[in-house]
Amino acid sequence: MIRFEKVSKAYPGPGKPALDNVSVDIEKGEFVFLVGASGSGKSTALRLVTRETRPTAGRVYVAGKEVNRLAGWKVPRLRRQIGTVFQDFRLLPNKTVSENVAFALQVIGKPKSEIRRVVPATLELVDLQGKGDRLPDELSGGEQQRVAIARAFVNRPMILIADEPTGNLDPTTSAGIMNLLGRINETGTTILMATHDESVVDQMQKRVVELDHGRVTRDEARGGYGSQVG
Ligand SMILES: Nc1ncnc2c1ncn2[C@@H]1O[C@H](COP(=O)(O)OP(=O)(O)OP(=O)(O)O)[C@@H](O)[C@H]1O
């Protein structure tokens, strides 16, 4: 589903490359944690999947297509197949919970009838039924992240990418978010999640790919945050 083939990425200017000869193959339906110190290249790897940045060398494939070679007009279609979730939620502050989720469907031209049907069902999936009329700042951090996940998933993307989704949340709330991501993964959605959060990686015991200065130093089928665990 996602394949990195000898991928390197050097940003302009001096300094070592952000990614250095990275090869990773992720099958459909896998749940993969990307771990590593700050600056090890995790976010860069995620941005290559959505073509927010391009490799300096090597190839990135998503669903068999080489991302860097897609025509510009095909990039929106690629991004529609990939839901994204971030540490800082990125909700639209002046729209309600329902409107935030609906907006993701409006921008891709889904009919109103479908939006009216799918949005409440998705809010129920993330346990936010009854909160559709609230504004984001009337919700807890964990609830805001659930809205962001609902928005990312409402279109049933093949892939969900999450960059530090529990970074602003306490451990109990984080465990709930991970539980939700686990359920989404069970629907067949491939999940790639960059994190520093030891406890969630240890809790889930999923595949762990560790980066160190842009190189893969560990790729374990079922692991914990630290290499000695699992
Ligand atoms: N737009 C950019 N321009 C120049 N250098 C960048 C850019 N984005 C990232 N870098 C550099 O690339 C390296 C990898 O950064 P990246 O954000 O991918 O790491 P990360 O593992 O996600 O870190 P963090 O956990 O702190 O988010 C760092 O040295 C960073 O300074």
UniProtKB/TrEMBL annotation:
SMART domains, per database record: AAA
Gene3D superfamilies listed in its UniProt record: P-loop containing nucleotide triphosphate hydrolases (3.40.50.300)
Pfam families, alphabetized: ABC_tran
Main subcellular location: membrane
Family from the record: Belongs to the ABC transporter superfamily.
Subunit structure: Homodimer. Forms a membrane-associated complex with FtsX.
PANTHER family the record matches: CELL DIVISION ATP-BINDING PROTEIN FTSE, IMPORT ATP-BINDING PROTEIN
Record-given protein name: Cell division ATP-binding protein FtsE
Organism (species): Nocardioides szechwanensis
